[in-house]
Design brief:
Blueprint: H1 2-16, E1 26-31, E2 37-45, E3 52-56, E4 61-63, E5 74-76, E6 81-86, E7 89-98, E8 103-105, E9 107-108, E10 123-125, H2 129-136, H3 140-147, E11 151-153, E12 168-173, E13 179-185, E14 188-193, E15 199-200, H4 206-213, H5 249-262, H6 269-281, E16 290-294, E17 297-310, E18 315-320, E19 327-330, E20 343-346
Parallel strand pairs: 10-11
Antiparallel strand pairs: 1-2, 1-15, 2-17, 3-6, 3-20, 4-5, 6-7, 7-8, 8-12, 9-12, 12-13, 13-14, 16-17, 17-18, 18-19
Length: 361
Amino acid sequence: MKRYFLMFLGLLILVAWPFEASQACTYVFLKAKDGSIVSVRSQEFFTKLGAQLQMIPRGTAYASSGPQGIKGLQWKSKYGVVAISVLGNKNILADAANEKGLYITTLWFEDTKYPDIKPGDTVVDVQNFVAWVAGNFATVDELQKALDQVKVYGRVEEYFTTGKVIPLHWPVTDAGGNSIVLEYIDGQLKIWDNRKNGVLTNEPNLGWHLDNLRFYSNLKAFGLPVPELRDEKWALGSDMKGLPGDYTNASRFIKISTLRFFAAPPKDADEAINLGIHLINTVDIPYGPQLWIIGQTARVQFTPWHSFFDHRNLRFYYRTSENPNLRLINLQELNFQEGTPVKTMELYGGTPYINATGGFK
């Protein structure tokens, strides 16, 4: 069996070799009928990324670096934060939700070109950017005003053996349903209003994906009650004929945008979380079929974790590739008082099931 798997893997490598597969992440936010806002994100990579959960209290000190001769911004966080850190560094945050209901996450974006830094610029390095946003801003409007005065410095991350700068773009959503996407294109910050479509994947830029979405305007989901009236043979789901099903950035954007549009609107936060689970399941990558070609090395890309945030009830949920059971962290029950130490919890572990045998009575 192992022999056939290796042969199959080798065939996949030969097919994929001419192409440089990009890291695949997906973000979507949902609004319920009662005004609840829920953010959903899938993280894809070729390792578990050294990820851990962090409880970060108010007053936590940060010091950003800048290019040679330029000092980075230093600050103490105003708000308590729950986050997922990566690369074994508690300050490098991939997902972060604060006690005011603002959520920011990171998605790979190969088209990133960070700005040139000049003397006198106020600088936050890319590794500390999420911590700066989540720790200091309650709303998207507050953040947008501050971004006029700050530049992101693309510092090289030692974890990446090629010595490259981590290329990222960021969706940010607050408890009021304001949602933006931040992208550095040709050295200039582009801020997209993402309230209408509410989806983000990876490169190209968000504007390209929104233009591409128009080519799928023929997709329908009307479901006539009498299948026999159709001209062609009817099958469950046939209204979505032509919906992309692969893992490319464009296809995931089309799929999540379309399913989000046609899904029955959730009535409250719990229904929105449930809908978010079903949406993000459609782009989940199991370990094995997706390769990321880095130079001459093929790595298996998969989904280490999903995260979910209920912006109004301040509930942060997560699950992992090895344990799909949804776990909850209630920010309202945490002690974010200044002077409390940063606390860390393991993200991974646990079993992929709950024993319900005792439910029979």
